[in-house]
Protein backbone atom coordinates (compact mmCIF):
# COMPACT_ATOMS: atom_id res chain seq x y z
CA UNK A 1 0.00 0.00 0.00
CA UNK A 2 1.29 3.43 -0.96
CA UNK A 3 2.20 5.92 1.76
CA UNK A 4 0.98 9.51 1.96
CA UNK A 5 4.37 10.73 0.72
CA UNK A 6 4.10 8.59 -2.41
CA UNK A 7 0.58 9.84 -3.16
CA UNK A 8 0.12 13.24 -1.46
CA UNK A 9 -2.78 14.29 -3.68
CA UNK A 10 -4.64 11.00 -3.13
CA UNK A 11 -4.80 10.11 -6.80
CA UNK A 12 -6.81 6.96 -7.55
CA UNK A 13 -7.09 4.94 -10.72
CA UNK A 14 -9.69 2.58 -12.15
CA UNK A 15 -9.11 0.41 -15.20
CA UNK A 16 -12.24 -0.66 -17.06
CA UNK A 17 -12.93 -2.85 -20.08
CA UNK A 18 -15.96 -4.53 -21.64
CA UNK A 19 -16.31 -8.10 -22.79
CA UNK A 20 -15.86 -8.57 -26.56
CA UNK A 21 -14.56 -5.00 -27.02
CA UNK A 22 -10.77 -4.57 -27.56
CA UNK A 23 -10.48 -1.30 -25.66
CA UNK A 24 -9.08 -0.49 -22.21
CA UNK A 25 -10.13 2.66 -20.36
CA UNK A 26 -8.37 4.37 -17.47
CA UNK A 27 -9.94 6.90 -15.09
CA UNK A 28 -7.62 8.90 -12.81
CA UNK A 29 -9.06 11.31 -10.26
CA UNK A 30 -8.35 13.15 -7.02
CA UNK A 31 -10.78 14.99 -4.73
CA UNK A 32 -8.27 17.86 -4.45
CA UNK A 33 -7.54 18.46 -8.14
CA UNK A 34 -9.56 19.73 -11.09
CA UNK A 35 -7.63 18.26 -14.06
CA UNK A 36 -9.08 20.53 -16.72
CA UNK A 37 -7.64 23.62 -15.00
CA UNK A 38 -4.61 22.25 -13.13
CA UNK A 39 -3.14 19.72 -15.58
CA UNK A 40 -1.39 21.78 -18.29
CA UNK A 41 0.43 20.09 -21.19
CA UNK A 42 -0.81 16.64 -20.20
CA UNK A 43 1.19 13.77 -21.68
CA UNK A 44 0.78 9.98 -21.35
CA UNK A 45 3.62 7.52 -21.95
CA UNK A 46 3.10 3.74 -22.03
CA UNK A 47 6.02 1.60 -20.81
CA UNK A 48 4.70 -1.78 -21.92
CA UNK A 49 7.83 -3.72 -20.99
CA UNK A 50 7.48 -2.43 -17.41
CA UNK A 51 3.67 -2.74 -17.32
CA UNK A 52 3.52 0.94 -16.43
CA UNK A 53 1.71 4.06 -17.55
CA UNK A 54 3.34 7.44 -16.83
CA UNK A 55 1.34 10.67 -16.86
CA UNK A 56 3.12 14.03 -16.74
CA UNK A 57 1.85 17.61 -16.74
CA UNK A 58 2.68 21.09 -15.57
CA UNK A 59 0.86 22.43 -12.54
CA UNK A 60 -0.31 26.03 -12.84
CA UNK A 61 1.08 26.87 -9.38
CA UNK A 62 4.35 24.92 -9.52
CA UNK A 63 7.36 25.23 -11.85
CA UNK A 64 8.20 21.52 -11.46
CA UNK A 65 6.38 18.98 -13.64
CA UNK A 66 4.13 16.41 -11.98
CA UNK A 67 4.64 12.70 -12.68
CA UNK A 68 2.01 10.08 -11.92
CA UNK A 69 2.64 6.33 -12.22
CA UNK A 70 -0.13 3.78 -12.80
CA UNK A 71 0.40 -0.02 -13.03
CA UNK A 72 -0.86 -1.59 -16.26
CA UNK A 73 -3.00 -4.73 -15.95
CA UNK A 74 -2.14 -7.88 -17.86
CA UNK A 75 -3.63 -7.25 -21.32
CA UNK A 76 -2.48 -7.49 -24.95
CA UNK A 77 -1.95 -3.87 -26.02
CA UNK A 78 -2.02 -2.85 -29.67
CA UNK A 79 1.23 -0.87 -29.79
CA UNK A 80 0.69 0.19 -33.42
CA UNK A 81 -2.24 2.42 -32.51
CA UNK A 82 -1.87 5.65 -30.52
CA UNK A 83 -3.30 6.31 -27.08
CA UNK A 84 -6.15 8.72 -26.54
CA UNK A 85 -6.23 10.88 -23.40
CA UNK A 86 -8.00 13.98 -22.14
CA UNK A 87 -8.38 16.04 -18.96
CA UNK A 88 -11.98 16.54 -17.82
CA UNK A 89 -13.62 18.36 -14.92
CA UNK A 90 -13.08 15.74 -12.23
CA UNK A 91 -10.88 13.09 -13.85
CA UNK A 92 -8.32 12.22 -16.52
CA UNK A 93 -9.40 9.64 -19.08
CA UNK A 94 -7.05 7.43 -21.10
CA UNK A 95 -8.08 4.95 -23.81
CA UNK A 96 -5.71 2.16 -24.87
CA UNK A 97 -6.49 -0.03 -27.94
CA UNK A 98 -6.05 -3.77 -27.44
CA UNK A 99 -5.24 -6.61 -29.79
CA UNK A 100 -7.88 -8.84 -28.21
CA UNK A 101 -10.68 -8.26 -25.73
CA UNK A 102 -9.91 -9.05 -22.09
CA UNK A 103 -12.23 -12.08 -22.02
CA UNK A 104 -10.73 -13.73 -25.11
CA UNK A 105 -9.51 -17.30 -24.46
CA UNK A 106 -6.05 -16.46 -25.79
CA UNK A 107 -5.74 -13.63 -23.26
CA UNK A 108 -6.83 -15.94 -20.44
CA UNK A 109 -4.19 -18.50 -21.44
CA UNK A 110 -1.56 -15.79 -21.71
CA UNK A 111 -2.30 -14.51 -18.21
CA UNK A 112 -2.36 -18.03 -16.75
CA UNK A 113 1.09 -18.72 -18.18
CA UNK A 114 2.49 -15.49 -16.75
CA UNK A 115 0.96 -16.13 -13.34
CA UNK A 116 2.39 -19.65 -13.11
CA UNK A 117 5.91 -18.68 -14.23
CA UNK A 118 8.60 -16.43 -12.84
CA UNK A 119 8.51 -13.76 -15.54
CA UNK A 120 7.83 -11.06 -13.01
CA UNK A 121 10.79 -11.82 -10.80
CA UNK A 122 10.30 -10.53 -7.28
CA UNK A 123 6.95 -8.93 -8.06
CA UNK A 124 3.89 -10.57 -6.59
CA UNK A 125 0.51 -10.98 -8.17
CA UNK A 126 -2.53 -9.12 -6.85
CA UNK A 127 -5.36 -11.62 -6.31
CA UNK A 128 -4.73 -13.42 -9.60
CA UNK A 129 -7.66 -14.51 -11.74
CA UNK A 130 -10.93 -15.25 -9.96
CA UNK A 131 -12.23 -18.75 -10.56
CA UNK A 132 -15.92 -19.01 -11.48
CA UNK A 133 -18.36 -20.23 -8.83
CA UNK A 134 -19.51 -23.69 -9.84
CA UNK A 135 -21.41 -26.31 -7.88
CA UNK A 136 -20.12 -29.05 -10.19
CA UNK A 137 -16.48 -28.20 -9.50
CA UNK A 138 -17.20 -27.91 -5.77
CA UNK A 139 -18.90 -31.29 -5.77
CA UNK A 140 -16.03 -33.00 -7.60
CA UNK A 141 -13.39 -31.36 -5.40
CA UNK A 142 -15.16 -32.24 -2.14
CA UNK A 143 -15.90 -35.79 -3.30
CA UNK A 144 -12.25 -36.39 -4.10
CA UNK A 145 -11.21 -35.42 -0.56
CA UNK A 146 -13.04 -38.25 1.17
CA UNK A 147 -13.60 -37.03 4.74
CA UNK A 148 -14.37 -33.30 4.83
CA UNK A 149 -14.34 -30.87 7.75
CA UNK A 150 -15.47 -27.26 7.77
CA UNK A 151 -13.79 -24.37 9.60
CA UNK A 152 -14.77 -20.82 10.51
CA UNK A 153 -12.96 -18.60 8.04
CA UNK A 154 -12.47 -15.83 10.59
CA UNK A 155 -10.96 -17.73 13.52
CA UNK A 156 -10.26 -21.19 11.97
CA UNK A 157 -12.44 -22.95 14.57
CA UNK A 158 -13.45 -26.45 13.47
CA UNK A 159 -17.21 -26.32 12.97
CA UNK A 160 -17.75 -30.04 12.38
CA UNK A 161 -17.77 -32.39 15.34
CA UNK A 162 -17.26 -35.29 12.95
CA UNK A 163 -16.06 -35.46 9.35
CA UNK A 164 -18.63 -35.77 6.59
CA UNK A 165 -18.05 -37.92 3.56
CA UNK A 166 -21.45 -38.33 1.90
CA UNK A 167 -22.10 -35.38 -0.44
CA UNK A 168 -25.26 -34.53 -2.36
CA UNK A 169 -25.80 -31.46 -4.53
CA UNK A 170 -29.21 -30.01 -3.75
CA UNK A 171 -31.20 -28.78 -6.79
CA UNK A 172 -32.18 -25.13 -6.74
CA UNK A 173 -35.31 -25.50 -8.88
CA UNK A 174 -38.93 -25.83 -7.82
CA UNK A 175 -39.37 -29.58 -8.00
CA UNK A 176 -43.17 -29.37 -8.13
CA UNK A 177 -43.12 -27.10 -11.18
CA UNK A 178 -40.56 -29.30 -12.94
CA UNK A 179 -42.59 -32.46 -12.30
CA UNK A 180 -45.84 -30.81 -13.42
CA UNK A 181 -44.19 -29.55 -16.60
CA UNK A 182 -42.76 -32.98 -17.34
CA UNK A 183 -46.06 -34.82 -16.88
CA UNK A 184 -48.33 -32.03 -18.11
CA UNK A 185 -49.37 -33.92 -21.26
CA UNK A 186 -49.36 -37.35 -19.66
CA UNK A 187 -52.69 -39.17 -19.63
CA UNK A 188 -52.07 -40.17 -16.02
CA UNK A 189 -51.10 -36.73 -14.73
CA UNK A 190 -54.30 -36.66 -12.67
CA UNK A 191 -53.27 -39.87 -10.96
CA UNK A 192 -50.71 -38.06 -8.85
CA UNK A 193 -47.61 -39.28 -10.67
CA UNK A 194 -45.90 -35.89 -10.42
CA UNK A 195 -46.69 -35.67 -6.71
CA UNK A 196 -45.20 -39.13 -6.14
CA UNK A 197 -42.06 -38.16 -8.04
CA UNK A 198 -41.63 -34.97 -6.00
CA UNK A 199 -42.16 -36.86 -2.75
CA UNK A 200 -39.51 -39.36 -3.82
CA UNK A 201 -37.00 -36.57 -4.35
CA UNK A 202 -37.90 -34.94 -1.05
CA UNK A 203 -37.34 -38.17 0.84
CA UNK A 204 -33.96 -38.53 -0.88
CA UNK A 205 -32.72 -35.18 0.42
CA UNK A 206 -32.57 -35.12 4.19
CA UNK A 207 -30.00 -33.89 6.64
CA UNK A 208 -28.69 -37.24 7.84
CA UNK A 209 -25.70 -37.60 10.13
CA UNK A 210 -22.42 -37.78 8.26
CA UNK A 211 -23.88 -36.23 5.11
CA UNK A 212 -23.58 -32.80 3.51
CA UNK A 213 -26.10 -31.20 1.17
CA UNK A 214 -24.40 -28.81 -1.23
CA UNK A 215 -26.17 -25.69 -2.55
CA UNK A 216 -24.96 -22.76 -4.63
CA UNK A 217 -24.30 -20.58 -1.58
CA UNK A 218 -24.10 -22.90 1.42
CA UNK A 219 -23.50 -26.37 2.77
CA UNK A 220 -26.21 -28.02 4.87
CA UNK A 221 -25.04 -30.21 7.73
CA UNK A 222 -26.96 -32.29 10.22
CA UNK A 223 -27.22 -30.40 13.50
CA UNK A 224 -25.62 -33.34 15.32
CA UNK A 225 -22.51 -32.94 13.15
CA UNK A 226 -22.04 -29.24 13.97
CA UNK A 227 -19.74 -28.34 16.86
CA UNK A 228 -21.27 -26.18 19.54
CA UNK A 229 -24.86 -26.48 18.36
CA UNK A 230 -27.24 -26.75 21.27
CA UNK A 231 -30.95 -26.41 20.94
CA UNK A 232 -32.97 -24.79 23.75
CA UNK A 233 -34.09 -28.27 24.76
CA UNK A 234 -30.47 -29.34 25.19
CA UNK A 235 -29.75 -26.22 27.23
CA UNK A 236 -32.72 -26.90 29.49
CA UNK A 237 -31.72 -30.53 29.92
CA UNK A 238 -28.17 -29.60 30.95
CA UNK A 239 -29.34 -26.75 33.19
CA UNK A 240 -27.11 -24.24 31.44
CA UNK A 241 -29.80 -21.57 31.28
CA UNK A 242 -30.43 -19.87 34.57
CA UNK A 243 -33.97 -20.30 35.75
CA UNK A 244 -34.65 -23.25 33.44
CA UNK A 245 -32.53 -25.96 35.05
CA UNK A 246 -35.35 -27.36 37.23
CA UNK A 247 -38.00 -27.40 34.51
CA UNK A 248 -38.96 -30.76 33.07
CA UNK A 249 -38.26 -30.82 29.36
CA UNK A 250 -41.34 -32.94 28.68
CA UNK A 251 -43.57 -30.25 30.18
CA UNK A 252 -42.72 -27.78 27.45
CA UNK A 253 -44.70 -27.87 24.24
CA UNK A 254 -43.34 -24.89 22.32
CA UNK A 255 -39.92 -23.77 23.46
CA UNK A 256 -39.66 -20.02 23.23
CA UNK A 257 -36.87 -18.31 21.40
CA UNK A 258 -36.18 -16.23 24.47
CA UNK A 259 -33.92 -19.09 25.49
CA UNK A 260 -31.85 -18.44 22.40
CA UNK A 261 -30.92 -15.03 23.68
CA UNK A 262 -29.04 -16.63 26.55
CA UNK A 263 -26.67 -18.45 24.20
CA UNK A 264 -24.02 -16.68 22.07
CA UNK A 265 -24.59 -19.27 19.35
CA UNK A 266 -27.96 -17.86 18.38
CA UNK A 267 -29.03 -14.50 17.07
CA UNK A 268 -32.58 -13.54 16.21
CA UNK A 269 -33.31 -13.28 12.48
CA UNK A 270 -37.02 -13.94 12.76
CA UNK A 271 -40.09 -12.06 13.75
CA UNK A 272 -41.17 -14.52 16.42
CA UNK A 273 -38.52 -14.45 19.09
CA UNK A 274 -40.50 -13.43 22.12
CA UNK A 275 -41.83 -14.91 25.28
CA UNK A 276 -45.25 -15.41 23.70
CA UNK A 277 -43.91 -18.64 22.22
CA UNK A 278 -43.50 -20.18 25.67
CA UNK A 279 -46.49 -22.30 26.27
CA UNK A 280 -48.56 -21.23 29.26
CA UNK A 281 -50.92 -24.17 29.02
CA UNK A 282 -49.25 -26.73 31.27
CA UNK A 283 -52.10 -29.20 30.73
CA UNK A 284 -51.25 -29.68 27.07
CA UNK A 285 -49.85 -32.99 25.87
CA UNK A 286 -46.11 -33.41 26.59
CA UNK A 287 -43.81 -32.86 23.69
CA UNK A 288 -42.27 -36.00 22.25
CA UNK A 289 -38.58 -35.38 21.97
CA UNK A 290 -38.15 -38.06 19.33
CA UNK A 291 -41.00 -37.67 16.88
CA UNK A 292 -39.19 -39.68 14.26
CA UNK A 293 -38.64 -43.21 15.60
CA UNK A 294 -37.60 -44.60 12.22
CA UNK A 295 -33.95 -45.33 11.69
CA UNK A 296 -32.37 -42.52 9.70
CA UNK A 297 -30.20 -43.55 6.77
CA UNK A 298 -26.51 -43.14 7.39
CA UNK A 299 -26.05 -41.48 4.05
CA UNK A 300 -28.31 -39.80 1.54
CA UNK A 301 -28.19 -41.11 -2.03
CA UNK A 302 -25.57 -39.54 -4.22
CA UNK A 303 -26.83 -37.31 -7.02
CA UNK A 304 -30.37 -38.32 -7.94
CA UNK A 305 -30.73 -38.37 -11.71
CA UNK A 306 -34.00 -36.53 -12.21
CA UNK A 307 -34.13 -37.18 -15.96
CA UNK A 308 -33.72 -40.95 -15.52
CA UNK A 309 -36.28 -41.13 -12.74
CA UNK A 310 -38.73 -39.03 -14.70
CA UNK A 311 -38.39 -41.14 -17.83
CA UNK A 312 -38.85 -44.34 -15.86
CA UNK A 313 -41.95 -42.99 -14.17
CA UNK A 314 -43.30 -41.67 -17.46
CA UNK A 315 -42.82 -44.96 -19.32
CA UNK A 316 -44.71 -46.95 -16.72
CA UNK A 317 -47.38 -44.49 -15.74
CA UNK A 318 -50.16 -46.01 -17.86
CA UNK A 319 -50.11 -49.32 -16.03
CA UNK A 320 -47.88 -49.52 -12.99
CA UNK A 321 -49.09 -46.30 -11.41
CA UNK A 322 -52.77 -47.11 -11.59
CA UNK A 323 -52.16 -50.65 -10.38
CA UNK A 324 -49.95 -49.63 -7.47
CA UNK A 325 -52.31 -46.91 -6.38
CA UNK A 326 -54.96 -49.49 -5.60
CA UNK A 327 -52.73 -51.11 -3.02
CA UNK A 328 -51.53 -47.92 -1.38
CA UNK A 329 -52.70 -47.01 2.12
CA UNK A 330 -54.59 -43.79 2.62
CA UNK A 331 -51.45 -41.86 3.39
CA UNK A 332 -49.57 -43.34 0.44
CA UNK A 333 -46.16 -44.95 0.52
CA UNK A 334 -44.53 -41.63 -0.19
CA UNK A 335 -46.11 -39.88 2.77
CA UNK A 336 -43.67 -37.28 4.06
CA UNK A 337 -42.54 -36.74 7.60
CA UNK A 338 -42.98 -33.39 9.32
CA UNK A 339 -39.40 -32.28 8.71
CA UNK A 340 -39.69 -32.97 4.97
CA UNK A 341 -42.98 -31.32 4.02
CA UNK A 342 -41.36 -27.89 3.89
CA UNK A 343 -39.38 -28.96 0.84
CA UNK A 344 -42.55 -29.27 -1.22
CA UNK A 345 -42.90 -25.51 -1.59
CA UNK A 346 -39.15 -24.86 -1.61
CA UNK A 347 -39.45 -22.93 1.66
CA UNK A 348 -36.14 -24.22 2.93
CA UNK A 349 -33.35 -22.66 0.93
CA UNK A 350 -29.66 -21.96 1.32
CA UNK A 351 -30.11 -19.28 4.04
CA UNK A 352 -28.62 -16.65 1.74
CA UNK A 353 -31.15 -15.37 -0.78
CA UNK A 354 -34.90 -15.95 -0.86
CA UNK A 355 -37.54 -15.26 -3.51
CA UNK A 356 -41.13 -14.27 -2.87
CA UNK A 357 -42.45 -17.73 -3.78
CA UNK A 358 -40.06 -19.30 -1.28
CA UNK A 359 -41.34 -17.51 1.82
CA UNK A 360 -43.58 -18.87 4.54
CA UNK A 361 -45.03 -17.03 7.50
CA UNK A 362 -44.72 -20.24 9.51
CA UNK A 363 -40.95 -20.50 9.13
CA UNK A 364 -38.40 -18.31 10.89
CA UNK A 365 -34.65 -18.22 10.34
CA UNK A 366 -32.23 -18.24 13.27
CA UNK A 367 -28.61 -17.15 12.80
CA UNK A 368 -25.93 -19.63 13.82
CA UNK A 369 -22.65 -18.20 15.13
CA UNK A 370 -19.19 -19.68 15.50
CA UNK A 371 -18.85 -20.94 19.10
CA UNK A 372 -15.35 -19.44 19.38
CA UNK A 373 -15.48 -15.98 17.78
CA UNK A 374 -19.29 -15.49 17.79
CA UNK A 375 -19.14 -14.49 14.11
CA UNK A 376 -22.31 -15.45 12.24
CA UNK A 377 -21.47 -18.28 9.85
CA UNK A 378 -24.91 -19.49 8.83
CA UNK A 379 -28.54 -19.98 9.79
CA UNK A 380 -31.24 -22.60 10.11
CA UNK A 381 -35.04 -22.68 9.68
CA UNK A 382 -37.41 -23.35 12.52
CA UNK A 383 -41.14 -23.22 13.15
CA UNK A 384 -41.25 -23.01 16.94
CA UNK A 385 -38.12 -21.02 17.78
CA UNK A 386 -36.08 -24.07 18.77
CA UNK A 387 -35.02 -27.05 16.67
CA UNK A 388 -33.99 -26.79 13.00
CA UNK A 389 -37.10 -27.63 11.01
CA UNK A 390 -35.35 -30.19 8.82
CA UNK A 391 -32.50 -30.93 11.21
CA UNK A 392 -30.00 -29.03 9.08
CA UNK A 393 -27.68 -26.07 9.73
CA UNK A 394 -26.80 -23.93 6.68
CA UNK A 395 -23.20 -22.69 6.65
CA UNK A 396 -22.57 -19.95 4.08
CA UNK A 397 -19.60 -20.68 1.84
CA UNK A 398 -18.30 -17.13 2.20
CA UNK A 399 -17.92 -17.68 5.97
CA UNK A 400 -16.27 -21.11 6.03
CA UNK A 401 -13.28 -23.01 4.68
CA UNK A 402 -12.48 -26.69 4.25
CA UNK A 403 -8.79 -26.38 5.10
CA UNK A 404 -7.04 -25.87 8.43
CA UNK A 405 -5.32 -22.50 9.03
CA UNK A 406 -1.98 -23.65 7.58
CA UNK A 407 -3.57 -24.49 4.21
CA UNK A 408 -6.04 -21.63 3.72
CA UNK A 409 -4.20 -20.33 0.64
CA UNK A 410 -5.37 -23.36 -1.35
CA UNK A 411 -8.85 -23.56 0.14
CA UNK A 412 -11.71 -24.51 -2.18
CA UNK A 413 -14.08 -21.89 -0.75
CA UNK A 414 -11.59 -19.00 -0.83
CA UNK A 415 -13.14 -17.89 -4.14
CA UNK A 416 -16.50 -17.40 -2.42
CA UNK A 417 -17.24 -13.90 -1.17
CA UNK A 418 -20.48 -12.28 -0.14
CA UNK A 419 -20.46 -10.05 -3.22
CA UNK A 420 -19.76 -12.84 -5.71
CA UNK A 421 -22.43 -15.09 -4.25
CA UNK A 422 -24.94 -12.24 -4.48
CA UNK A 423 -24.20 -11.34 -8.10
CA UNK A 424 -24.07 -15.00 -9.16
CA UNK A 425 -27.61 -15.63 -7.96
CA UNK A 426 -28.86 -12.23 -9.09
CA UNK A 427 -27.61 -12.73 -12.65
CA UNK A 428 -29.46 -16.02 -12.92
CA UNK A 429 -32.68 -14.00 -13.01
CA UNK A 430 -31.34 -11.33 -15.36
CA UNK A 431 -29.85 -13.33 -18.22
CA UNK A 432 -32.27 -11.88 -20.78
CA UNK A 433 -32.41 -8.35 -19.38
CA UNK A 434 -30.29 -5.41 -20.48
CA UNK A 435 -31.17 -3.54 -17.29
CA UNK A 436 -32.50 -5.38 -14.28
CA UNK A 437 -33.99 -3.77 -11.19
CA UNK A 438 -34.25 -5.46 -7.82
CA UNK A 439 -35.17 -4.50 -4.30
CA UNK A 440 -33.55 -6.30 -1.36
CA UNK A 441 -35.80 -6.64 1.68
CA UNK A 442 -35.26 -7.71 5.25
CA UNK A 443 -36.44 -11.30 5.64
CA UNK A 444 -37.86 -10.53 9.08
CA UNK A 445 -39.66 -7.19 8.64
CA UNK A 446 -40.19 -7.34 4.84
CA UNK A 447 -39.05 -3.69 4.66
CA UNK A 448 -36.92 -2.46 1.74
CA UNK A 449 -33.25 -1.98 2.62
CA UNK A 450 -31.51 -1.70 -0.76
CA UNK A 451 -32.45 -0.94 -4.36
CA UNK A 452 -30.10 -2.09 -7.07
CA UNK A 453 -30.04 -1.74 -10.87
CA UNK A 454 -27.77 -3.96 -12.96
CA UNK A 455 -26.19 -1.78 -15.64
CA UNK A 456 -23.58 -4.00 -17.25
CA UNK A 457 -22.82 -7.60 -16.23
CA UNK A 458 -19.95 -7.85 -18.72
CA UNK A 459 -17.48 -5.35 -17.28
CA UNK A 460 -13.91 -5.90 -16.12
CA UNK A 461 -12.32 -3.58 -13.56
CA UNK A 462 -9.51 -3.08 -11.11
CA UNK A 463 -8.75 -0.09 -8.90
CA UNK A 464 -6.01 1.26 -6.68
CA UNK A 465 -3.85 4.22 -5.72
CA UNK A 466 -1.41 5.94 -8.05
CA UNK A 467 2.19 6.73 -7.15
CA UNK A 468 3.34 10.34 -7.51
CA UNK A 469 7.01 10.95 -8.26
CA UNK A 470 8.19 7.32 -8.09
CA UNK A 471 7.40 4.09 -9.92
CA UNK A 472 8.46 1.68 -7.16
CA UNK A 473 7.18 -0.62 -5.85
CA UNK A 474 4.18 -1.95 -7.80
CA UNK A 475 2.47 -5.33 -7.79
CA UNK A 476 1.19 -6.94 -10.96
CA UNK A 477 -2.54 -6.45 -11.30
CA UNK A 478 -5.32 -8.25 -13.15
CA UNK A 479 -8.70 -7.09 -14.37
CA UNK A 480 -11.55 -8.86 -12.60
CA UNK A 481 -15.05 -9.60 -13.94
CA UNK A 482 -17.56 -7.27 -12.28
CA UNK A 483 -21.15 -6.12 -12.57
CA UNK A 484 -21.64 -2.37 -12.79
CA UNK A 485 -24.63 -1.30 -10.72
CA UNK A 486 -26.58 1.69 -9.52
CA UNK A 487 -27.67 1.28 -5.93
CA UNK A 488 -29.42 3.07 -3.11
CA UNK A 489 -29.91 1.94 0.46
CA UNK A 490 -31.58 2.93 3.72
CA UNK A 491 -30.05 0.41 6.12
CA UNK A 492 -29.59 3.02 8.84
CA UNK A 493 -33.27 3.96 8.78
CA UNK A 494 -35.42 1.56 6.73
CA UNK A 495 -38.55 3.69 7.25
CA UNK A 496 -36.95 6.95 6.09
CA UNK A 497 -38.39 6.96 2.57
CA UNK A 498 -41.03 4.23 2.28
CA UNK A 499 -43.27 6.16 -0.10
CA UNK A 500 -40.53 6.91 -2.61
CA UNK A 501 -39.33 3.32 -2.44
CA UNK A 502 -42.83 1.99 -3.04
CA UNK A 503 -43.32 4.25 -6.05
CA UNK A 504 -39.99 3.19 -7.57
CA UNK A 505 -40.72 -0.50 -6.98
CA UNK A 506 -44.21 -0.28 -8.46
CA UNK A 507 -43.21 1.82 -11.45
CA UNK A 508 -40.28 -0.38 -12.47
CA UNK A 509 -41.82 -3.78 -11.68
CA UNK A 510 -38.80 -4.72 -9.61
CA UNK A 511 -37.79 -8.20 -8.57
CA UNK A 512 -38.15 -8.75 -4.82
CA UNK A 513 -35.28 -10.42 -2.98
CA UNK A 514 -35.26 -11.30 0.72
CA UNK A 515 -32.13 -11.73 2.80
CA UNK A 516 -31.12 -11.82 6.46
CA UNK A 517 -30.56 -8.32 7.82
CA UNK A 518 -26.92 -8.73 8.85
CA UNK A 519 -26.11 -10.12 5.38
CA UNK A 520 -27.73 -7.09 3.71
CA UNK A 521 -25.72 -4.70 5.89
CA UNK A 522 -22.43 -6.40 4.99
CA UNK A 523 -23.37 -6.35 1.33
CA UNK A 524 -24.28 -2.65 1.42
CA UNK A 525 -21.00 -1.83 3.16
CA UNK A 526 -19.02 -3.56 0.41
CA UNK A 527 -20.94 -1.99 -2.50
CA UNK A 528 -20.80 1.45 -0.89
CA UNK A 529 -17.03 1.18 -0.49
CA UNK A 530 -16.65 0.49 -4.23
CA UNK A 531 -18.39 3.78 -5.11
CA UNK A 532 -15.06 5.51 -4.43
CA UNK A 533 -13.56 3.78 -7.45
CA UNK A 534 -15.32 6.11 -9.90
CA UNK A 535 -15.19 9.90 -10.35
CA UNK A 536 -18.09 11.78 -8.70
CA UNK A 537 -19.54 12.82 -12.09
CA UNK A 538 -20.24 9.17 -12.96
CA UNK A 539 -23.13 8.98 -10.47
CA UNK A 540 -25.64 10.84 -12.60
CA UNK A 541 -28.87 9.09 -11.58
CA UNK A 542 -30.73 10.98 -8.79
CA UNK A 543 -30.73 9.06 -5.54
CA UNK A 544 -28.41 6.33 -6.83
CA UNK A 545 -24.65 5.78 -6.67
CA UNK A 546 -22.52 4.06 -9.30
CA UNK A 547 -20.55 1.07 -8.07
CA UNK A 548 -19.50 -2.41 -9.07
CA UNK A 549 -19.65 -5.86 -7.52
CA UNK A 550 -17.33 -8.78 -8.25
CA UNK A 551 -18.88 -11.64 -10.15
How much is the radius of gyration in Å? 28 Å
The gross shape turns out to be: elongated
Helix content: 10-25%
Number of DSSP E strands? 23
Average pLDDT confidence is: 74
Query: How many helices does DSSP assign?
Result: 11
User: Termini, distance in Å?
Assistant: 24 Å
Low-confidence stretches: 118-128, 240-334
Q: What is the makeup of the main sheet?
A: 10 strands, mixed
Taken as a percent bin, the fraction of beta residues is 15-25%
Q: Return the domain count.
A: 3
Structural class: alpha+beta
GO molecular function, one term: ubiquitin protein ligase activity
Biased composition (Basic and acidic residues): 316-326
Region (Disordered): 315-334
Protein name: Ubiquitin-conjugating enzyme E2C-binding protein
Explain what the structure shows.
The chain is of the alpha+beta class and 551 residues long. Helix content is 20%, strand content 25%. It folds into three domains: 12-116, Immunoglobulin-like (Sandwich), CATH 2.60.40; 135-229 and 299-413, no CATH class; 416-550, no CATH class. Strands 1, 2, 6, 7, 13, 18, 19, 21, 22 and 23 form a ten-stranded mixed sheet that branches. A seven-stranded mixed sheet has the order 9-10-11-16-15-14-12, covered by helices on one side. A hairpin with a 5-residue loop joins strand 4 (52-59) and strand 5 (65-71). Helix 4 (175-182) packs antiparallel against helix 5 (193-204). The longest helix has 13 residues, at 517-529.
Amino acid sequence: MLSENQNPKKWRYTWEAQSHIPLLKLFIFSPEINPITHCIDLNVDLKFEKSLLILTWKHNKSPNPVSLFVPLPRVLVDLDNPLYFSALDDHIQVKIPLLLSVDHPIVSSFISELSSGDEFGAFSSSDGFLEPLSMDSDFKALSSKGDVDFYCRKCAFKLTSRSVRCLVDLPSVNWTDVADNWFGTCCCSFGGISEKLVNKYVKSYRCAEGSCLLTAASVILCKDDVSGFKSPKDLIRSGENEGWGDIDVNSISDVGASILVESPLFHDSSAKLSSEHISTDMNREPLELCEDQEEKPSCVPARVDSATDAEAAHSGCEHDTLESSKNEPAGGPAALEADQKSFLNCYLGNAFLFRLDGLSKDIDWIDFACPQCCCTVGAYPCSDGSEPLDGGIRLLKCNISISPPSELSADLFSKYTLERMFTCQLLESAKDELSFRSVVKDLKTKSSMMQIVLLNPNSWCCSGCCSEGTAEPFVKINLHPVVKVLFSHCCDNPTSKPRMDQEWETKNLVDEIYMLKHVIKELVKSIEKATGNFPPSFSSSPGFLLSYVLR
